[in-house]
Amino acid sequence: MIEVANVSKRYGSIQALDGIHFNIDEGSCFGLVGPNGAGKSTLMKILSGVLQSFEGDIIVHDDSVVRDRLKVKRKLGYIPQDLCLEETLTARENLGYFGSLYGLKGKVLKRRSEEVLEQIGLKDRGKDKVLTFSGGMKRRLNIGCALLHKPSIVVMDEPTVGIDPQSRNSIFSIINQLKADGSTIIYSSHYMEEVEHLCDSIGLIDKGTLVECGTMDELLHKHNKPSLFISGHQLNQELLSAHGHVQPKGDGFLLESETPLAALQNVIEEFRLHNIEPRRLELYHPKLEDIFFNLTGTQLRDS
Ligand code: ADP
Prior knowledge:
- By secondary structure, this protein is α/β, with parallel strands linked by helices.
- It folds into 2 domains: 2-221, P-loop containing nucleotide triphosphate hydrolases (Rossmann fold, 3-Layer(aba) Sandwich), CATH 3.40.50; 225-285, Alpha-Beta Plaits (2-Layer Sandwich).
- Helices cover 36% and strands 27% of the residues.
- The protein contains 11 helices and 14 strands.
- It has helices at 40-47, 69-75, 91-101, 106-119, 135-145, 165-180, 192-198, 216-223, 237-240, 260-274, 288-296; strands at 2-11, 14-24, 29-33, 55-60, 63-64, 76-79, 153-157, 184-189, 201-206, 209-215, 227-231, 245-249, 252-256, 280-284.
- A hairpin with a 2-residue loop joins strand 4 and strand 5.
- Bound molecules: adenosine-5'-diphosphate.
- Adenosine-5'-diphosphate (ADP) binds at residues 11, 14, 16, 34, 36-42.
């Protein structure tokens, strides 16, 4: 198990992380979700032993990142958000360089480089310079550089930012393969759909604080408020608020009610009375973005 134990971090006057505490099961995929500036990168750097000055501790299989940093680092592969590649070298040369940093050499390094090129789908581009690669290919190589020493834990900081859908899908394939091989994955993103789709458990982070943590089912169960989604050009918030708590959502409104079917009947009756023709009227199941918004008042879809 990995325990994030009361981690806090200040940059001068900025409290980037404030008493973050949660556990990650071995072999699971954990998603850390929050808007830009929430503290995700800072936590990922601390988890991977890259950022050393912080309060609290990270315990990885009984080893402390504070006391046994190098031991912990050997179990980990950290993929930073910013590309860390030498563009004038080939993909194979980049892998060779990063492998040597992890202490690999000779035949083992050669074999692992070839295996990783296969794993990241760049086998046929190994001899090409990185400067000829697309953004997505560079991202895949960036991931590959952290996998050479076969880490049991892979920490990925927003690996799909700014890339095309096809490259995004190939990164998901790499992650799914790592999951199938039993790796523990810690994945940060501000794209909720990715995290909902990939991760077994999720931490929601905002302004340096962990606002919620659990499996998707647990989060939905805890925060599932039955709602109706209603849209139509003659609608207004006042008209609906007689039937429950109303908030604007997209091009319509969400009407929360403990008894959504009764609310539905009442709303239909109200529409008949006022001769209103709704465009959409349906039961609404909350998503991660709704849970986050209800907890923090912050939209995750900020970019
Ligand atoms: P995220 O990854 O969620 O976008 P970060 O961890 O990068 O968030 O940043 C959290 C907060 O810490 C932000 O307010 C950011 O401006 C600040 N911050 C991050 N790195 C530094 C740094 N090296 N020096 C000063 N402030 C920083």
